[in-house]
Amino acid sequence: MKWLGWSSLAAMAGVGVWVFGFTPEDTNMGFVQKIFYIHIPSVVAAYLAAFLVALGSLGYLWKREAPYDRLARSSGELATLFFGMVLATGAIWGRPTWGTYWTWDPRLTSALMAFLLYAGYGLLRAFAPPGEKQARLAAVLGLVAFLDIPLIHLSVQWWRTLHQPTTFFKVDQQGRPTPAADPEIYLPLFGAIGAALLLFAFLLVFRMKIQAREEDLAERLAGHETLS
Q1: Is the pLDDT assigned to residue 227 strictly greater than 60?
Q2: CA–CA separation, 220 and 106 (whole Å)
Q3: What is the DSSP annotation of 176-194?
């Protein structure tokens, strides 16, 4: 925990200095383009959280074991957090780029749908009676919510959209994917993604430890009430 916490803090500080002190400004968008270094890592972390919710949900439906449910529950909270960051940073980026903070663009709308699904997942966890039934319902919702992730990613290919397609990589003459941007753009982006994943790992482990302690306390209280 301490190693992850200090590593993620140092990584974010280092990437912040790198991005805001040494990367060039975009010719068209200027300084606001630097939100790109927060937006893209947030997308990666949100996708990872959604995948872990689905993985934990599938594992719980199969095995009915608490660690799978704990993974899904903790990842669901992080999915809500990072999809919220995706929407917020996208709005900041969209204002100077498109002239508006929000438009019902297919990618934006599907990302909003994901945020609402995982927020609903959190509400189910918070207000449904605890126990196996809550875990099963949450597992089903976690799997359904994950179906929106391919929709988000492929929406720019399936429909006409203001959001630019994935253009970070291009295919060279030998058919190999290579970065489409200069090293001073993509290297700090990779650093920012790494920092975001370190933060994600710290938050996930921290939340799962809290959840394990909450479950242990609930079991002890239930045993005490039975004895009383």
Answers
A1: no
A2: 48
A3: -EEESS-HHHHHHHHHHHH
CA distances from 52 to 8, 55, 154 (A): 20, 5, 20
DSSP category for residue 147: T
Helix, strand and coil content of the chain, in percent to the nearest 5, comes to: 80, 5, 20
Compute the distance between CA of residue 34 and CA of residue 37 in angstroms, rounded to an integer. 6
Least confident residue range of 21-25, 146-150, 190-194, 210-214:
21-25
How is residue 7 written in tokens? 């590593």
What residue type is assigned to position 40 of the chain? Answer: I
d(C-alpha 172, C-alpha 176), whole Å: 5
**Joined tokens for residue 98:** 């498109």
Q: Which amino acid is it at 95?
A: R
Burial zone of 37 (CB within 10 Å; 0-12 exposed, 13-18 middle, 19+ buried)? buried
Q: Which residue has the higher pLDDT, 22 or 175?
A: 22
| 199 to 76, 88, 89, 140: CA distances (angstroms) | 15, 18, 17, 27
* CATH code of the region 2-16+34-158+185-227: 1.20.120
What's the start-to-end Cα distance of the chain, in Å? Answer: 37
Whole-number Å distance between alpha carbons of 187 and 6: 22
Q: Where are the domains of the chain?
A: 2-16+34-158+185-227
CA–CA dist 52, 183 (Å, integer)? 31
**What are 100-138's pLDDT values in tens digits?**
888 888 889 999 999 999 999 999 999 998 889 999 999
